[in-house]
């Protein structure tokens, strides 16, 4: 019995980052529907981004102050400027582009395009030498193939619809679409450009987080700083964007408030912290490769609960994405084994002992 418990604990410890990222994507899935309902209710996306990170900052502040009091490095001007850039890339600029693109494209298109972050992060990480790429090693080939296959799955979901899968029961809830049924070609190009730029800045944010965490290994504190700085940046942008609509800042006891609280506490607070934790443990590519799961969860929930249309192309693309995810994660685990063996050998040599690994 004790041996089984010990084995379970070992398995849990090994796959803890994987479980954390899966539950994180479930959290993002719920956010998608809550914010969609809130924007239909009339809430400004700019105001939402600002309020959401104000809530997250105040929620995370006491945890960051007390739990990381002894491990938090001294704040310097260079670190603060890094926090400022991280807030631009991960909060104010990226999220505002993300939600504005809702006006010009479809949510399905956005959810599919966000999955390109994994491929972009891998490419940028290799270019900046944050990621090891050895094409002579099967694990290195697996990472490249996994990235390409995952991207192919995303393109399949985006470009190929196929026949509609019939729904066998009536939807439990109904959410009206956030965009107009017809959008001109120029607006579609504008929305597509915004979401592509959003994916690029998000990828840069993940890579920069990995670099910053090496010199500031305090995830709670970094999350808090990003929330407050990002909220201030977004507030300035909101004042400019909503200068003719001051009433946009007012929200009542309705879906707008609940979406702000959920987005602030769960997404901008808890999920941002867990992403930073996983980035430090596994690297930025590992974190971004779980983004396709959110698209799959959204499709399943929209089909089974909300009665939205599910196309055959989405199902095929989802399967292709999962294949790519598996290949890239297998390649990442190979890097982890190599690092472990290298560290073990160095430790044995330093202690002048014989070691067999």
TrEMBL record:
GO CC annotation: plasma membrane
Name all EamA domain ranges: 32-157, 190-329
Q: Where in the cell is it found?
A: Membrane
Q: Where are the transmembrane segments?
A: 18-34, 46-67, 79-102, 108-128, 140-160, 191-210, 222-241, 247-273, 285-305, 311-331
Entry keyword Lipoprotein: no
Asked whether the UniProt record includes Transmembrane helix among its keywords, one would answer yes
Indicate how the chain sits in the lipid bilayer: Multi-pass membrane protein
Q: Which domain of life is it from?
A: Eukaryota
Q: Which residue positions does the secretion signal occupy?
A: none
Mention one GO molecular function.
Answer: transmembrane transporter activity
> Which keywords does the record carry?
Membrane, Transmembrane, Transmembrane helix
Pfam families attached here?
EamA (PF00892)
Mind telling me which PANTHER family this protein's record contains? WAT1-RELATED PROTEIN
Family, per the entry?
Answer: Belongs to the drug/metabolite transporter (DMT) superfamily. Plant drug/metabolite exporter (P-DME) (TC 2.A.7.4) family.
- Protein's name according to its UniProt entry: WAT1-related protein
**Which species does this protein come from?**
Medicago truncatula (Barrel medic)
């Amino acid at each position: 019995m004790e041996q089984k418990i010990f084995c379970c604990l070992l398995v849990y410890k090994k796959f803890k980052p994987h479980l954390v990222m899966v539950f994180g994507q479930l959290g993002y899935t719920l956010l998608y529907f809550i914010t969609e309902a809130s924007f239909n209710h009339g809430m400004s996306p700019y105001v939402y981004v600002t309020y959401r990170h104000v809530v997250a900052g105040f929620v995370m502040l006491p945890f960051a102050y007390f739990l990381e009091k002894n491990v938090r490095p001294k704040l310097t001007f260079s670190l603060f400027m890094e926090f400022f850039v991280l807030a631009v890339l991960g909060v104010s600029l990226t999220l505002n582009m993300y939600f504005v693109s809702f006006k010009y494209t479809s949510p399905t298109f956005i959810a599919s395009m966000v999955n390109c972050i994994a491929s972009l992060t891998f490419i940028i990480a290799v270019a900046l030498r944050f990621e090891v790429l050895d094409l002579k090693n099967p694990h290195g080939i697996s990472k490249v193939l996994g990235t390409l296959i995952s991207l192919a799955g995303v393109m399949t979901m985006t470009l190929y619809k196929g026949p509609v899968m019939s729904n066998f029961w009536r939807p439990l809830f109904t959410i009206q679409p956030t965009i107009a049924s017809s959008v001109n070609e120029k607006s579609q190009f504008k929305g597509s450009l915004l979401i592509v730029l959003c994916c690029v800045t998000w990828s840069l944010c993940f890579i920069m987080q990995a670099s910053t965490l090496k010199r500031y290994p305090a995830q709670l504190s970094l999350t808090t700083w990003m929330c407050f700085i990002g909220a201030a940046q977004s507030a300035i942008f909101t004042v400019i964007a909503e200068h003719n609509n001051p009433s946009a800042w007012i929200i009542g006891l309705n879906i707008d408030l609940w979406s702000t609280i959920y987005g602030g506490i769960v997404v901008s607070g808890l999920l941002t912290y867990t992403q930073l934790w996983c980035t430090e443990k596994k690297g930025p590519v590992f974190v971004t490769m779980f983004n396709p799961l959110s698209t799959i969860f959204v499709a399943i929930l929209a089909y089974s609960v909300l009665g939205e249309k599910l196309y055959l192309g989405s199902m095929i693309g989802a399967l292709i994405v999962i294949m790519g995810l598996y290949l890239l994660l297998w390649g990442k685990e190979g890097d982890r084994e190599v690092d472990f063996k290298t560290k073990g050998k160095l430790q044995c040599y330093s202690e002048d002992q014989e070691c067999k690994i």
